[in-house]
Amino acid sequence: MAMLEVKDLSVSYGHVRALKNVSIEADEGEIYSIIGSNGAGKTSLLRSISGLVKPTSGQVEFLGAKLPGKPHQIVKQGIVHVPEGRRTFSGLTIQDNLLVGGYLYKHDMHHDLEEQYKRFPILRERKDQFAGTLSGGEQQMLAIARGLMSHPKIMLLDEPSLGLAPIIVNQIFELIQEIRDSGITIFLVEQNARKALSICDKACVLENGIITVCGTGKELLCSDVVKKAYLGA
Ligand code: ATP
DSSP letter at 151? Predict the structure, then answer.
């Protein structure tokens, strides 16, 4: 049974159709990359998994059962969304941002904070500063750490490398692989198609809300259509 299965999902905003009959699935500890041009529907797909957008038809199943409708119920089930643009709370301290992330998982906050500070020493150094004072790369790390505070089984990552310097982009891609290696399933939306395809297990291309190509990361890296449209070949 798949960890997460999107079945025949369609999403519209009034007359604008964002997704049409999209079906994808990922198993435990896999990275599933979604690539496509601006406006192709990638964010809408992630937002409909995390309950932020209500599909017009189709459904999302987690371990074979239909997901509840409300975003907080979906987080409680173990699905966390790290949105495009980080969306950290700039007027809260770094530690408070992390505590907000762990809000629905009230086990041992101290232990959970310690885990994130071990993984991201820069966040420990700056824990009492406002999140708005962090660089873009540090804010991305904070957004991911905040997501990890809810002990997710699935992480939805929307454009995590957007606007970051190449050296930081490499760090973010290494981090994504570490998170996958810890057993978390990742759905990754990325403009950096070459990198996203080279670290993923499965992938699809979205064009105008429709899946036009899907396969393993390797297959898509070798596909002429993908090379021409997304890999600059
Ligand atoms: P980008 O890479 O630019 O973020 P995307 O692939 O993530 O694009 P979406 O943001 O999902 O694409 O948008 C898909 C389509 O739905 C686009 O035509 C977009 O203009 C439209 N859309 C997205 N959100 C809304 C909204 N809240 N209201 C109306 N139309 C929307």
Answer: -
